[in-house]
Amino acid sequence: MTDIAGLAERLERLETLEAARECLYRYADGADSRDWALLASAFAPDAVMVMPGAEVIGAAAIVDGLRGMLPAEFITRHLIVNPRAEYTGPGRARVRSTIYYAHEGTGFEATGWGDYIDDVTVADGVGVITRKEFIPAQHLPGSHARAAARLDDLETAELAREASWRYATAVDTLDFDLLASAFTDDAVLVTRKGPREGRDAVVDYYRTALADPVARKHFLVNQKVTATGAGTALLESYFLYTYAGDDTAILGWGNYIDRVRVIDGVGYIEEKRISIDVHSDIREGWAT
Predict the structure, then answer these.
(1) For residue 35, is it within any domain?
(2) How many domains does the chain have?
(3) Are residues 165 and 82 in contact, defined by beta-carbon separation less than 8 angstroms?
(4) Which one of 23, 31, 51, 260 has the fewest CB atoms closer than 10 angstroms to its CB?
(5) How far apart are CA 129 and CA 69, in angstroms?
(6) pTM of the model
(7) 226 phi and psi, to 5 degrees?
(8) What is the pLDDT of residue 213?
(9) What is the DSSP letter of 71?
(10) pLDDT digits over 29-72, tens only?
(11) How far is CA 34 from CA 68, 84, 139, in A?
(12) Assign residue 82 a region: left if phi > 0, alpha if psi is -120 to 50, beta otherwise?
């Protein structure tokens, strides 16, 4: 014989749990759409909302508080994650869930997460929150878009430095293939001897300039990178250099100004300006 009462109890339990979860989704939808009537429908008239440093009583006061926290120009998403609904009695449930939120709006960008503990009552298949507690775990100011831009700038800076190191290594080792890999096809090199345009012309300049059989070493110091756009940067460096050979003992220093462009994850110098402050044979005394 079918246990009608038992079936009804089981059905009521499941309907209560389902309505309790749906109530939380209604709350999130109301907040994100700024549908204040929908948001209010998620709370009992005498509901209580508890968060660090504050306790708000009454659905109207809760909605007014959230309205002030979520201005119309905001773009928000409240994601209810891993809701665990516990049946606490006929028409009653407690839902523990993780809340992940993202706020986008001038001056108010943030992401964060924490826990919700919601006590819900259900009547006629509709759940309302009687008590909501928010326990924050992390709140990170700054938007995803801003973080992505900052990340791009930092990655570009690293690739700019790597391009300059590739250049210095190539010059010191007379590796002209490596030197070519440090410049864009349309690169421009400007020295006291005038400009060279195009990668081939730049490399040919160095083949001639580095023809003397001496040991060279370039030291890059005080490198400053300024982002100039998506995937581009200005790299300013001091450099010191030595030339040592049978009849050569040169010490010098100056400045590099490099404009760098990132292509397919690799940094290339598209314009290099070299200025020399000191170039002297140390046997004669560079101080004079």
Answers:
(1) yes
(2) 2
(3) no
(4) 51
(5) 19
(6) 0.54
(7) -120, 120
(8) 83
(9) -
(10) 999 999 999 999 999 999 999 999 899 999 999 999 998 888 88
(11) 11, 26, 22
(12) left
